[in-house]
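forwarding from the other thread:

> can someone predict this with magnesium ion?

sure thing
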Amino acid sequence: MEKVLIFGHKSPDTDSICSSMVAEKLAKHYGLDAEAVRLGDLNNETEYILNHLRLEAPRKISEVEEGQKVILVDHNEKDQSVEGRDSAEVIGVIDHHRISAFETVSPLYYIAKPYGCTSTVLYEIFKRENIEIDKVTAQLMLSAIVSDTLLLKSPTCTEKDVEAFNELEKISGLNAKAYGLEMLKAGTDLSMYSADEIINLDAKEFTQNGKKAVIAQVNTADINDVFTRKDEIAFAMEKSISERDLDLYMFLVTDIINTNSKAVVLGNERSAVEKAFGKTIDENDSVFLEGVVSRKKQVLPQILEVL
Ligand code: MG
Ligand code: MG
Ligand code: MG
């Protein structure tokens, strides 16, 4: 039987890793020879989760061969996907993002819901199809929901996510609040990373009207902790702008305790950020965004509109 590779986006976050592992179980349930893989290194949060749950990380790949059958989770945009995707065969997508730059040659399963997390979409499939959710699967899904919704605090969090969270907590045997806080905290430790690594931990590239933008994000318990390294971070961003020919680079530092963000904004099109938020970028290339925690809902659409 032909092997099917399942993966999330580049710079994988917890949802991309955990949901690909859960989707592997789902695909196997339907008789596919499926393997979850990843397109990059684990971040600290995901590392904490897999250690805590005593699970192996999926194998890392950098490209796929022509004709390779793949299932995408937690993304669909070409800029965020695997090298070689255009000549691969996408047989399925399970996602919770806008659809952009996506086309296929053959018909496919495409399941997208505007929920807070891919794992909530997966949870719904397991329920609907009456597939048993074992303890490990519940732990993986719960971890993904905690991560993507910042423990249900993000404006992207829906009733469906809360419902899944409560149900999965029971099956998982975890105390979701305590465990969730620990895993989020593990993700805020950036001390071992270089500035180059920090800006790439969770970076997503978008193209709009021929303009290339990267919006990167890190979580922190204290914005100032990250901003003490602002100069080296800005230097790394400038380097990335010239290497990748970017028009805009926005680096969001998100305070998960007080649910605000402060961003470093660089590039020729940085006035787009001023327009989008009606704010002025200060002399430190920074702008404070009150109440903003979700790139997907509170940053990206606003910027795409003015770019
Ligand atoms: Mg993601
Ligand atoms: Mg996600
Ligand atoms: Mg995310």
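The pocket of magnesium ion (ligand 1) is lined by residues 9, 13, 15-16, 74 (CB under 6 Å). thats all i got for now
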